[in-house]
Amino acid sequence: xxxxxxxxxxxxxxxxxxxxxxxxxxxxxxxxxxxxxxxxxxxxxxxxxxxxxxxxxxxxxxxxxxxxxxxxxxxxx
Length: 77
Prior knowledge:
Blueprint: H1 3-36, H2 45-63, H3 65-72
Helix pairs in contact: 1-2, 1-3
């Protein structure tokens, strides 16, 4: 792997971590507030499932960051 490919891999991993952490953190706060009895806006189930898919997408980017980094930085030697 070239240094460009390693850098691209690092960027993909960081983006995946930030993406997944943002959605996981925001929904965990929502469920904590609900459990504590704070009045919160109720979201439909499809919204919660859709946002869980966003967390899964972030995890998928983390797992596939090495091939994505190679693909994104190929030909930059």
